[in-house]
Specification:
This protein is mostly helical and 89 residues long. Helix content is 87%, strand content 0%.
């Protein structure tokens, strides 16, 4: 594989990781809204709703953290490739 193919593969993996993380965050937000709606309709007791909301919130935070790490790695990779050919004068 050439360097260009490797770079494209890295960017593809970065894009997939960020997309998956954003999807998990959005899905968890929808699930939290659904838990709240079920509590309002009295189909779910508050203790179970609290437990589910805490777990979904933790999933959102972990997914957001993973997206932040992936974005930081991609920015450092991008800056590293830009600065690799820069003269140091």
């Amino acid at each position: 594989m050439t360097a260009i193919e490797n770079a494209l593969l890295v960017w593809l993996v970065i894009g997939i990781g960020i997309t998956a993380g954003v999807f998990i965050v959005a899905r968890a937000a929808v699930q939290i809204a659904e838990v709240g709606y079920r509590v309002l309709e009295k189909r779910l007791d508050p203790q179970t709703a609290t437990r589910q909301t805490i777990l979904l919130t933790l999933a959102m935070l972990l997914a957001g953290g993973a997206v932040a790490v992936i974005a930081a790695i991609s920015v450092s990779f991008f800056l590293g490739t830009l600065l690799q050919d820069a003269p140091l004068q």
